[in-house]
Amino acid sequence: MKRVLTGLQPTGLLHIGNYFGAIEPMVRLQDGNELFMFVPNYHAITVPQRPDELRRNTLFATAVYLAAGIDPKRTTVFPQSLVSQHTELGWILNCIAKMGELERMTQYKDKATGKGENVSVGLFDYPVLMAADILLYDSLLVPVGSDQKQHVELARDLADRFNKQFGQTFVMPEPMIRKDGARIMGVDNPEKKMSKSASSPKNYISLMDNPATVEKKIKAAVTDSGTEVKGGAERPALANLLMIFSLVTGKTVAEIEAAHAGQSYGAFKQNLADAVNAWLAPLQAKILAFSKDEAMLLKVLEDGAKKAEEEAEVKMKVVRQKIGVAL
Ligand code: ADP
Ligand code: TRP
Fold it and tell me: Which of 43, 140, 142, 229 yields a CA-CA distance of 20 to 30 A from 29?
């Protein structure tokens, strides 16, 4: 029985990369582990958000968790903003984190590039809040896509530094990164990961795209030169499309390649679009059904927050004591 924790920022709609990178692994861990799955809405405001949209996206993320199979009776589901210990520990960890180590975070560098001085301090500091999210609950496993590995490693460094300075307080978390599907690339650009913050919606397949949109995006997907439906390191575009095919059908890449031997890219893309749509349809139906019941979603989040806060407060009492602020 291990403590497992993850969260997905409620910025816009979630996409299949988010689903396979972070949500599905959580669902699989639900049996036999103790799970915390939260909505990091304080992470979302590191870039400007419209307040009404942020609220809507927070409820939407909750609906997606439930639709994917997260059971709030077994998993503590809550919004970061209702458990103030996250920001409290975030501040304390800020005071042991170093500028240099945050400057090395590649996600920050990516997001800040070209913006000069015009990025929020929050965007720079975001990995420290993420470390607080993880360390508050003695999380041992953190299922994430591979882009978040460096942030989980920072959480380990901060835990170690705190423990050395103030005595054993935090356990060491491990990032849990699946072998296939931890980094789904953009369908319009196999060199860059699929991301909600991509400049064009052609980059990602949203969990809420309708069948015609999915078909359009997949038909427009970038392919490699040649005509063969084959993946491999030299063929990143096809490798990515084949991986998506494999994830939504449960078939191996080799099986899919064999089934398309001698077929055109066009035929392959049609089959891929059909497979993605067949996989999305029941998930979307569940997401929509859960989304309609706002009272239920709020109740799940409030009940979860109460449970999370009890745990978080136990840890914070120790932390405040250790650093000398519990008077
Ligand atoms: P985005 O870049 O789309 O805004 P987030 O940073 O909110 O995504 O990521 C939420 C979770 O989904 C994280 O665990 C992240 O590692 C995972 N994730 C994001 N993009 C991908 C992807 N393209 N492939 C696999 N996992 C991903
Ligand atoms: N930073 C993560 C992302 O952008 C979201 C996140 C915040 C998270 N806190 C976390 C993920 C703690 C895992 C554990 O996707």
Answer: 43
